[in-house]
Design goal:
three-stranded mixed β-sheet, globular, 1 helix, disordered C terminus, disordered N terminus, mainly beta
Length: about 170
């Protein structure tokens, strides 16, 4: 019984690790992308994405990363994966929002980086609710060298977490 459990666990771990290291859309299956965090778009809409990540003892928000509505388009938003959890917020040209319940400060300009973004009491109206993305493999706990989150037409939200958030 224990041997059977271990065999199943090892098989599942190998399967999930294999799934973690797949090529991103618009890339050859044999080529691994550069290390980092990617966002991909299957929503059918042009998106603007903001990311929040832990950096040197504080939370930092960075954005806006435009993401074309072309199916399978991806963009790299961070160049390494130093954390297990990242937070995302996105809006589309039509007004759809991909949001959650984790507030962070955002900038008012098209391109910004804000340290201490968790201190929302100082941001005035420039606060948005982000959803969390857990990067390590669910079975092994290993953080892969690259990770891609895909925005889809059915995972935008109005005041609730994205299906990828808070598992």
């Amino acid at each position: 019984m224990i041997l059977n459990y271990c065999t199943k666990t090892a098989t599942l771990a190998a399967l999930f690790v294999g799934m973690t290291f797949v090529a991103l859309p618009n890339q050859k299956a044999s080529a691994d992308p550069s290390p980092g965090f990617y966002v991909c778009n299957e929503s059918g809409e042009n998106l603007n994405v903001i990311v929040s990540y832990y950096n040197s003892g504080t939370w930092t928000t960075q954005g806006r990363f435009p993401l074309s509505q072309t199916p399978g388009s991806c963009t790299q938003i961070l160049y390494s994966l130093n954390n297990t959890r990242y937070y995302l917020y996105a809006t589309s040209d039509s007004g759809n929002e991909w949001q959650g319940n984790h507030p962070f400060c955002i900038g008012s300009t098209p391109s910004f980086t804000i340290p201490y973004a968790e201190q929302t009491q100082y941001c005035g109206s420039f606060v948005k609710n982000f959803f969390s993305v857990w990067v390590p493999n669910a079975v092994t706990g290993i953080t892969p060298p690259f990770y891609a989150y895909t925005f889809a037409p059915n995972n935008y939200s109005i005041n609730w977490n994205s299906p990828r958030a808070e598992r």
